[in-house]
Amino acid sequence: MWNKNTEVFMGCDRDYLEADTVLFGAPFDCTTSYRPGARFGSGVIRRESYGLETYSPYQDRDLKATQVIDIGDLELCLGDTKKALDQIEACADQILSDGKRPFLLGGEHLVTLGAFRAAARRYPDLAVIHFDAHADLRDEYLGTPLSHACVLRRCHEFVGDGRIFQFGIRSGDRPEFLWGRKHVSTVLYDFSCLEQTLSQLSGKPIYFTLDLDILDPSVFPGTGTPEPGGVSFEELRKAATLVCSKARIIGCDVTELSPPYDPSGISAAAACKIVREMLLSLH
């Protein structure tokens, strides 16, 4: 499934047969609506992870004690969005069929749809927890239904009303918000009611999708569609680890790091730390 010479996220080099969580990258940004570059996100997260310890003082846990393998980036067809999504779906489906949890590194947010489709077929009662600055509920964007601006609308087609729970949303067009009020649960600006939502979803299979532009661009400028007014790193760390430790996560992703827009590397470091804390909370 992967190249044995693949550079891996720090400490995530377990044997595939023994692993319970499988990291893989989707270097795709062909529908990015503002600034491209997210296709480089997964690779940079791996490279920059070597500047971060495997041990987390937040949790007093170490990645070396977990069963996680990073199988590297998929070689996606960048000129064909449908085919790229099919490739992502096939990989996630294989991971799920092997009894493991897929953890996808983007890439733009549309890559979520590929992994989510595989999960939704296996878990008919699947729900979604979605962290993001943007609602991503448009039915189409610039004439196409396959856009990162439409990804949660496409997910809704699989799960229906009352199964998508959004947090941190602070951007979208009016029709998008009007549609969302009828079909999904949306918490604007922050993580209010997150604990109540997790209690409501206790025991149910959850797909967790985290778009890093939920962070305020003052601390995370390296993204394709920066949106002022976001949460702090510490707020996101606490919320993401709460979800991963309390919910029954059967698949998840972290998307929308766009390294070209932050040459300082601060955004990449933040992404690495969020991924580390999520991995540790899942185990």
Question: Could you please describe the fold and organization of this structure?
Answer:
Helices cover 33% and strands 18% of the residues. The chain has 283 residues and is α/β, with parallel strands linked by helices. The chain has one domain: Arginase, Chain A (3-Layer(aba) Sandwich). The strands form two sheets. An eight-stranded parallel β-sheet has the order 4-1-5-10-9-6-7-8, sandwiched between helices. Strands 2-3 form a two-stranded antiparallel ribbon. Helix 1 (41-48) crosses helix 8 (266-281), helix 2 (81-97) packs across helix 3 (111-122) and helix 3 (111-122) runs parallel beside helix 4 (151-159). The radius of gyration is 17 Å and the shape is globular. The mean pLDDT is 96.
Q: Which geometry do the CA atoms define? A: globular
Supply the number of structural domains.
1
Helix count equals 8
Unreliable stretches: none
What is the string of SSEs from the N terminus onward?
Answer: EHEEEHEHEHEHEHEHEH
Q: Proportion of β residues?
A: 15-25%
CATH-assigned homologous superfamily = Ureohydrolase domain
Mean pLDDT: 96
- Output the CATH class name: Alpha Beta
Second CATH tier, the architecture? 3-Layer(aba) Sandwich
Largest sheet: 8 strands, parallel
Helix and strand composition category:
alpha/beta
Number of strands: 10
Give the CA-CA distance, first to last residue. 23 Å
* Order of strands, widest sheet: 4-1-5-10-9-6-7-8
Q: Helical content, roughly?
A: 25-40%
Cα radius of gyration in angstroms:
17 Å
CATH topology: Arginase, Chain A
